[in-house]
Amino acid sequence: MSSFRDAAMMSKAWPFEEARKVLKRYQKIIPEKEFVLFETGYGPSGLPHIGTFGEVARTSMVMRAFQAISDIPAKLICFSDDLDGMRKVPSNVPNPDALEQYLQMPLTSVPDPFGTYESFGHHNNAMLRRFLDTFGFEYEFISATDFYKSGQFDEVLLRAAEKYSDIMKVMMASLREERQQTYSIFLPIHPKTGRVMYVPMKSVNAVDGTVTFDDEDGREMTLPITGGNVKLQWKPDFGARWAALGVDFEMYGKDHSTNTPIYDRICEILGQRKPEHFTYELFLDENGHKISKSSGNGVSIDQWLNYASAESLSYFMYQKPKTAKRMYFDVIPKAVDEYHQQLRAYETQDEKARLNNPVWHIHNGHVPKSDMVISFAMLLNLASVSSAETKETLWGFIQRYVPGSGPESHPSMDQAVGFAVRYYNDFVKPTKTYRTASKVEQQALEALRDALIAHDGAVDDETLQSIVYAEGRERFDPLRDWFTAIYEVLLGSSQGPRFGGFIALYGVDETVKLIDEALSGKLVP
């Protein structure tokens, strides 16, 4: 075994820990299908949200880790449950009232409210694939509608009819008494109305492969289980899909965790080995509510990419998957800066440390160098004090601070500069709140101004930071009150950058002018 594979087998990074569980399944045998299958599911009841991306990104990270420790081929499938009936109309689509008449219709039979695809399900599937393709994921897409109607699910559906009582027994144990009276694992699709029907079965004929039931109007009907005439309820569908495809690994949100034993048992009843699972915590919006496709709360993939790079989003997804995280615009700057910190750290790390570094998993071992000579947080502060409306404004400061830098030589930096201008104008500028300095703060700022005017030495970060410290050390206890005053009086924010570095970037003369404007009251509305 190579030293790299040895290190990978010992890595404590969570994708490697999950990959080793998958590898353990095939220590003695090779999978009959000749590859290991990773799956991620998508319910296209609404537009794909950032949590959907996270699930595919994280599953891809586990698959890449598996490929690093095993020679068994691996494949990722993204499965869309687009044969589900539309239970409610999403609020974030055009003319939602027009979709009311299509409730309980399969999503691939509901007209596309955006008018671009043959159905709402097809539209949402296309959106998902566009998002995934943007990030370069390697995956195979499967539509539940196609899977059922093409007959690929027929064998498992017929087996479910044979094992109907066993599967029903599993489901009955999880249902309230009143729900037990009408529940069936099979949901017929009405041949005339096209609606998915939640009706009890009068009989399930495993020999003929049919189900008999009364429709909503009391008419008795018999339909073949196969060919897309009948679909499975979502919990049985989960386990049946694992059995039909031979899934080896799937991750899903904490809200599914109580159903895991149900999924597993149904998969086993249908004759297949249950997969390995990974349960992640949910994403929350700015109010602490779960992100929902139908309500469109939180940050969308397009919105994140409007203010930061795709890699920063992947970094955010890698971090602490078992911890619930707020997914709102204010997490973006921190994610950007931490991602580039890890890129810089990677250059000097040994093999063991690199395999534990998030950027190895984001870039599958092909890690680029960072050309971010200024942090994103610093760019936002610079944009704030300079009221930057264009990238050129910020580049003027950057090129003075780092001679020889520019958009062509520092493309990631140039991209970040554009993001910073956009983020500042949309989020920072509307919330800036300056305040008047107290008497002690005014004295300290005057002293800092005078010290900067008198300074004729080096203008590097450390030298300027020592001047800032010197003027605050004798006047503030704790010293952090001094920096809070600087941020709130000069930058209009409760937090800010290391101020010596900011002065070096913004300029000594410009900082002197900024202090004068603050002391004269020009910054306070």
Structure description:
- The protein is built from 23 helices and 12 strands.
- It has 525 residues and is of the alpha/beta class.
- Helix 2 crosses helix 3 (50-69) and helix 7 (164-172) packs antiparallel against helix 10 (260-269).
Task: State the shape.
Answer: elongated
What's the alpha carbon Rg, rounded to whole Å? 29 Å
What name goes with the CATH superfamily of the largest domain? Answer: HUPs
Question: What does the largest sheet look like?
Answer: 5 strands, parallel
Number of strands: 12
What is the CA-CA span between the terminal residues? Answer: 67 Å
Quick one: CATH class of the largest domain?
Answer: Alpha Beta
Strand content: 5-15%
Which features does this protein show?
single chain; 525 residues; alpha/beta; Rossmann fold; 4 domains; 5-stranded parallel beta sheet; 23 helices; 47% helix
In short:
With 525 residues, the chain is an alpha/beta fold. The chain has helices at residues 3-10, 14-24, 50-69, 120-134, 144-149, 154-162, 164-172, 177-180, 234-245, 260-269, 301-307, 310-318, 332-346, 351-356, 358-363, 376-386, 391-401, 411-428, 439-454, 461-473, 480-491, 499-506, 508-519; strands at residues 36-42, 74-80, 140-143, 186-188, 201-205, 210-214, 220-224, 230-232, 249-253, 276-280, 283-284, 325-326. The strands form four sheets. Strands 3-2-1-9-10 form a five-stranded parallel β-sheet. Strands 5-6-7 form a three-stranded antiparallel β-sheet, with no helix packed on it.
